[in-house]
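Q: My labmate handed me this sequence with no annotations at all. I'd like to see what the chain might look like in three dimensions before we decide whether it's worth expressing. Could you predict it?
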Amino acid sequence: MTTKDTEKTQTPAQTEVTQAEPKELPPYSVQLDEPIKRGDQVINVITLRKPRSGELRGLSLQEVLQLDYNSLQKLLPRISTPTLTEQDVANMDTADLTAVGTELVGFFVQKQRKEEAYLQA
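A: Here is what I predict for the chain of 121 residues:
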């Protein structure tokens, strides 16, 4: 059977699935393995923005960089889109929380240091 014959026997839904390409995520975004569900809303992707100094109030920078759960639970609602609640963070899959935290840590590295690390790799 040729490729053309295979395409003719597939239903439109099957064709869509086989031809779908992954969408490129915006910068500082994380695709969740386990989406967060809030009523009818389903959150598949979380986008972070660089925190300003005031958004770090009440937090230990060292604990944020160590991905301390309590620090992440307070900081992520301040810098995430869609805005997460502390309860959303509490219910996140641990792999997703680690991925979001790892993305967050990148904000605390100067551009020059990132470039140096990239050149050494």
